[in-house]
Amino acid sequence: MTYSMTMKMKPFLPFVISRATNITLMRNIMFKNWPHIPIVFRTLHQSDVLQNATIAEPISRPAGKHTVTLVPGDGVGPELMGGVREVFKAAGVPVEFEEVFISEISPNISASLNTVLDSFRRNKVGLKGIIKTPTTFKGGALQTLNMRIRRELDLFANVVLVRSIPGFQTRHNNLDFIIIREQTEGEYSALEHESVKGVIESLKIVTRKNSMRIAKFAFDYAMRHGRNKVTAVHKANIMKLGDGLFIQCCEEVAKMYPKIKFETMIIDNCCMQMVSNPYQFDVMVMPNLYGDIVDNLAAGLVGGAGVVPGECYSTSVAVFEQGARHSYAEAVGKNIANPTATLLASCNMLKHLHLEYHSKLIEDTVLKVIKGGKITTQDMGGYSSTTDFINAVVHSLP
């Protein structure tokens, strides 16, 4: 594909401040290192916010092994990644893992952030477990490791694949829709302060640049995957400037794709519609916080965090992980975690590496094991262990 667009960078990016009464604070906020980065989409027209659009394209390398960054994560992450290694070995997958452990809750054994970033940048592809974020602030940086990794690598697009699994009965069956979340700004900007004692102000950042590129990513994704509709989720009725800018950008992009139906939906109504009639959705695009909430809600529709894969993209790096981000710390060492989401994410990673044969082989085998109904983990209503599931997949490989 050929991509080409132009951008005129303005000296300051527009931003929205929630309850920002402190003008001095606003003057002193310095948004450093907002990169002028090309983005992901096909040429449509000249735009004042995009330039030389490229994507983290599927990687094609000479015959041999691919090196992939592996971040085990916290909680049950290391157990699940061990299962992936076993399945890959049994399937003869030509991938070598460069493992790097990083953690906020286990800093004494954690690699440095730069070590992880260097590995991702070097290998261009990663398989990542969930890095647990403490809920209590004890001083230091407000940005979490997850936020810093996404910001430093500019992993702006989070894609969650919400699909019913044949043979796994849930309240809603035959679901198939995509959630696309902008994940570098919004409420997750770590810009908070105590203006006066007992009063906390949090800044919500919404920029035209990032809103345009996630909207274009969503419509381009819909085109490439034969999808018919894009739903932009917002709260512009209340946050008229911030979410108003996001919706304005989505509407601009929608005009460039006349063959794709476009609609907008307020986030609270969206949540109600998802549990009452989820079949109406095809591709959904939304800002950061709403995407986090909707990802988890959608996972619940098809069986929970253990069965939904996800992926994140920058212009040069692709990272594959669970779609609903839970470390499941309470299950550590109990051998009860469902490896389905991690295995399916690893299959999507193999597709990205042009290892379609191995991807389909493992995915078909995982789905076959689930459809058989004999091996199901606790979250699926069964009694099988993580090890039981992995062994069943290994022994069912052709």
Automatic annotation (TrEMBL):
GO CC, alphabetical: mitochondrion
Keyword Mitochondrion set for record: yes
GO MF term set: magnesium ion binding; NAD binding; oxidoreductase activity, acting on the CH-OH group of donors, NAD or NADP as acceptor
InterPro entries the record matches: IsoCit/isopropylmalate_DH_CS, Isocitrate_DH_NAD, IsoPropMal-DH-like_dom
Domain Isopropylmalate dehydrogenase-like residues, every copy: 67-393
Subcellular location: Mitochondrion
A Pfam family per the record: Iso_dh
Domain of life: Eukaryota
Keywords, alphabetical: Mitochondrion, Transit peptide, Tricarboxylic acid cycle
Any coiled-coil regions, as ranges: none
GO biological process, one term: tricarboxylic acid cycle
Family: Belongs to the isocitrate and isopropylmalate dehydrogenases family.
PANTHER family given in the database record: DECARBOXYLATING DEHYDROGENASES-ISOCITRATE, ISOPROPYLMALATE, TARTRATE, ISOCITRATE DEHYDROGENASE [NAD] SUBUNIT BETA, MITOCHONDRIAL
Protein name: Isocitrate dehydrogenase [NAD] subunit, mitochondrial
Species of provenance: Biomphalaria glabrata
Origin organism lineage: Eukaryota, Metazoa, Spiralia, Lophotrochozoa, Mollusca
Gene: LOC106059610
